[in-house]
Amino acid sequence: AQERYADLRDKPATTLCGATIGLTMNAGLMADLPSLENSGAEGVGLFRTELQFLARSNVPRRGDLAALYSRVLDAAHGKPVTFRTLDIGSDKVLPYMKRPEEPNPALGWRAIRVGLDKKGIMRMQLQALIRAANGRPLRVMFPFIAQFDEFREARQHLLDEIERERKLGHVLPEQLEIGAMLETPSLAFAPRQFFEMADFISIGGNDLKQFFFAADRENERVRRRYDTLNVSFLTLIETVANRCAEADTPVSFCGEDAGRPVEALCFAAMGLRSLSMRPASIGPVKHLLRRVDLNEARAVIDDARESGAQSVRPAVTEWLSKALA
Ligand code: PEP
Ligand code: MG
């Protein structure tokens, strides 16, 4: 499939109306990095750091993590890489960490909640990231932020670690960007100051959708019940896009849905200008985006919303079949 889109690799995802959508890739292993070149991704929009913690029987050492993150940055050849701090709990359990029995792990002690309560691991990971950057730009985002204070606190830990490294005489990142993942509906309605403080926002659509519709992403019985193109969900995406625009804060979508061409098109029509996806999806998404006018797509979406439709998918698919004919 990658072959089919090879001629698009070095072309931008620019729509007929002149909007350019940044396409980046999701990764989690060193072995994913060659795809950066092959797919034409503009960077790594989401580097999941869990695997290095999960695939072992004890906490990884700071030096080992720093070496790995450094190799990731080397392999990116200057393209931006967004590292997500440890997102454990729920479905991802560390064998060497005692955790409470929880009735609802997806709603429980996970991700940033663990990071803020057990600061040692998070601080060690932040130190590893700063050392890996070794004078290069560093982008870090914190997962599963549900309220402003969690972001403020996590961000302060990173700033404290920067200060500590400075005092130790280590080289600091040339540029530091600190972002939040928006994966809980509450964060979409956080104070304006949150959107201003974040250097960037990344919508974790897999979790956001699960919590928005109260439908377990792992449960086959319910997970397909709610369409991503449901008007309620698209309206939430629009709200986030608008709030980020008002704060002049870049926003991206990094859940699996970003890699589905029709979904990607609708997100762009709602105002998103950056999407992160598995590398194999970049070609197909770019192929569609380059053939559409977002203003037309938006008019179709707005008409469907006005008509009381539950999902805009039928209207968008029908319009596309004519527009692309
Ligand atoms: C998400 O929730 O959309 C996301 C990108 O993170 P993960 O799938 O790792 O939870
Ligand atoms: Mg998530």
Please identify the oligomeric state. single chain
- What is the total tally of β strands? 9
Overall 3D shape: globular
Number of helices: 14
Task: Determine the N-to-C terminus distance.
Answer: 22 Å
What are the secondary-structure elements, in order, as H or E? EEHEHHEHHEHEHEHHHEHEHHH
Query: How many whole angstroms does the radius of gyration measure?
Result: 20 Å
Largest sheet: 9 strands, mixed
**Structural class label:** alpha/beta
Contiguous low-pLDDT stretches (5 residues minimum) are none
Which cofactors or ions or other ligands sit in this model? phosphoenolpyruvate, magnesium ion
Strand content: 5-15%
Task: Let me know the average pLDDT.
Answer: 96
Helix content: 40-55%
Which short descriptors sum up this protein?
325 residues, alpha/beta, nine-stranded mixed beta sheet, 14 helices, 44% helix, globular, binds phosphoenolpyruvate, binds magnesium ion
What would your notes on this structure say?
This protein is of the alpha/beta class and 325 residues long. The chain has 14 helices and nine strands. Strands 1, 2, 3, 4, 5, 6, 7, 8 and 9 form a nine-stranded mixed β-sheet that branches. Strand 5 (138-145), helix 6 (148-167) and strand 6 form a beta-alpha-beta unit. Helix 3 packs across helix 5 and helix 11 (261-269) crosses helix 12 (279-289). The two termini are 22 Å apart. The mean pLDDT is 96. Residues 143, 183, 204, 206-207 line the site of magnesium ion (MG).
